[in-house]
Each structure stands twice: as C-alpha cells, then as structure tokens.
UniProtKB/TrEMBL annotation:
Entry's EC annotation: 2.6.1.1
Provenance organism: Anisodus tanguticus
Single Gene Ontology MF annotation: L-aspartate:2-oxoglutarate aminotransferase activity
GO cellular component, one term: mitochondrion
Note: In eukaryotes there are cytoplasmic, mitochondrial and chloroplastic isozymes.
Keywords: Aminotransferase, Pyridoxal phosphate, Transferase
Top-level taxon of origin: Eukaryota
Gene Ontology BP, a term: amino acid metabolic process
Name of the protein in question: Aspartate aminotransferase
Amino acid sequence: MHTQQSPSPSADRRLSVLARHLEPSSSAAIEGHNNHSIVAAPTSGYGGTQSVFSHIVRAPEDPILGVTVAYNKDTSPVKLNLGVGAYRTEEGKPLVLNVVRQAEQQLVNDRSRVKEYLSITGLADFNKLSAKLILGADSPAIQENRVTTVQCLSGTGSLRVGAEFLARHYHQRTIYVPQPTWGNHPKVFTLAGLSVKSYRYYDPATRGLHFQGLLEDLGSAPSGAIVLLHACAHNPTGVDPTIDQWEQVRRLMRSKGLLPFFDSAYQGFASGSLDTDAQSVRMFVADGGEVLVAQSYAKNMGLYGERVGALSIVCRNADVASRVESQLKLVIRPMYSNPPIHGASIVATILKDRNLYHEWTLELKAMADRIIRMRQQLFDALRARGTPGDWSHIIKQIGMFTFTGLNKEQVAFMTKEYHIYMTSDGRISMAGLSSRTVPHLTDAIHAAVTRAR
C-alpha cells in the first residue's frame, strides 16, 4: 500500500507564491499597485466580450479569388468555373505533371538531402538555371556575370521584392502598368512604395492591342520611369505585341531611359515554346541595357501551391550586379528571411537533367496545345450558333485567358442563369474549359449578347 505524503514545506511556499500571483484581489496585489484595483485588460479574456478588433469591417473578397469562393457555394450540377488561373485537364481536374512526380521521387529517394535553411538568395542551382531559362543559355549577360538572380515566392513575391528594391534604390518611383493589367499588380507596387500609373494597352473596339496609345503614353512618361511589361500571354487580355511592335517599344523605352520590369508568368505555356515566349525579354537584354524580370513556375510546371519564382536583375557590369544582390538580401531578410526549398529543388532537378527537361517541354506543349484547341472550339461553336459579333479575337489572343468583351451585366446574367463564373471584366480561363463544357458556355454567351445587352 502507498500512503499519501504531506506536501513538503518548499512545495507549500511555491503554492503560496503562486496563489498570490493568481489572486487579483489579494492584499499583496493591492499594495503593489498603490491600492488601485486591478482591471482586466481588453486582451486578457476577462471582464466582458468586447474585442479589441471590434472596429474592423469585413473586407470584400478578392475580385479574382472571390470567383472561386462564389463557385464553391453554388450547388448547381452544371456550374462552371472559368475564373481560376490554373490549368485543368479535359476532365476538369487539376494536373500534376509526370515530370514533376519523377523529380519529386528522385528528391525523396536521395537520403543525403536535408531540410536546412537555404541562403537568403535561395537555391543556387535554381537561380542559375532560371536565369538561363528566361535569358537563354548563351546570353552574354550571364556569361559576363551581369545578372543577379534571387529565388522568391512565385511571381507575386518576385514582383514585390523587385518593387521594394526599386523603391529603396532607384531614382524614379513611378511605375507604368498596362491598362488593364493583372489585378494584383497595382496593389503589389503601391504597398512596396511605388506610385502606379497606367498606359493604354487594350482597345475594346478591336479587342486587340491599342499600339498607338501605348507608344503615345510611354513617349510622354517621364525619363527614367519604370514600365511593367508582360513577357507573353498578357493577363487578362491575352493580347501580345508582335515582334516588330516589341522592337518599337524597346527603341522608344531605351531612347527615354525607361526601365523595363518584365512579369514572365507563362513562359512556354502560351505558345508551347520556351524560346518563343521569352523573345520579348531577350530583345531588351541583347541591347546591353538593364532589365528586371520576375519569373513564375506556377503555370508552366503546375507548381501553383509550391510558390516557386525568381527575380533576375540584369545590370551594366558584374560589380554592379554584385552590389545589387547585396541589397536584395536586405530586402528579403526582414520580409520572409529565405525561400522554401522543396519547389525550387523540383525545378532545378528538371532543368538540369536532359531527359527530364525534354519530357517537361513535351508536357508543356501539350498543355498549351489543349488551350489553343479550346479557343478554336469555342470560336467555331459561336460562329455555328450565329452569335452576334466578331469572335475572332478568341483565336487571335494567346495564353490561359481570353478577354471576351462581355460587360458586367452580361457576366452577371451568365452567372445567375447559367451558373458560369468569371471575373466581372469578362475574362475567362480557357484552361477551365473542355470539349464537354464548350456547348454550355456557347449557350450562355449567345443568351448574354442577345438578351442581356
């Protein structure tokens, strides 16, 4: 049998001290606070239900991500989500590339891999290979060590790091973005400390490029201003300049000392060719001038949730590039310290293995080709239906998105009557479409333009 022992004197003393600390009305507590009674602080959890955050109003849903929120709440069996910027198979399912699974299996099987922190600038192999992918393996800028590349949190994080760097170290703090542009661009640049202005880009009348307006607006921009350029597959319009037009833009920008900041979110995903989709960037690098490029592997490797991206800054010489990198570290360190290792390791594994790289290019082209087929099928269906209007812009535009030209009222009509979800500006994701759902979308568009004018 065990007999219960009395608490030791030292245990009694500890309990007594603890009790005094826990008892707010004890004489010791009162004496310690000059005989003022203790009142529970708003954050303490005692004395009422009022929150210190009661004044906060509910923020609106993100205009792009909110489309999926609304879609998920819809119980209709025929609902269709054309707002999400992610690739879907013909069956409407998310896709993990076979080459990504192979790379991940290699990483899992490598018992020498550890989970230690990366450096502030990220995975060295990933940075080196990312620069080669966008600038070209034979790029003089790379060979002359004039490029500094840092791993960032996908395209958004790359843009933010670049913007913060420019706000601290560049003499001009105005950035011109195309009108329209991706909805997150103005927010990223404004919060980083830049002043955002726009230049004409899309012409609603032709549903194509407003090239003359673009040249006029950039021509009147102050010398040295930053200009955001979509490398390919402009989001949201799907409208890109031709090579000749890009050359005119390059000459104009260089003559005025405008600083190009490319957002490359769709390399290889637009045309199916990695080199073709990088031509605009390489034209600006080839003239020896300075360029910033934000890269994302969300779309072209399907690594959406891995948040894999890179920021490359092409400088005049190697010494400047080295100093720029030292300052980029000071931007990144207090922001997220260093980037995650897994996604970058997948990308590096694929890019440095000849067989995996080749397989990736085949899968990438297959995704791009499916989107191009969806464009053709939708155009053919609208034409066969006799839907009023010229819908040729659907097959002229490129990349994941199509700017349909539908207005807010027509979009709302299609959502209410046909359970089709898209952003209010009429942008649809061609990747969310399939041969099975083209007829439903065609019916909705036809009804919208004939009944919801």
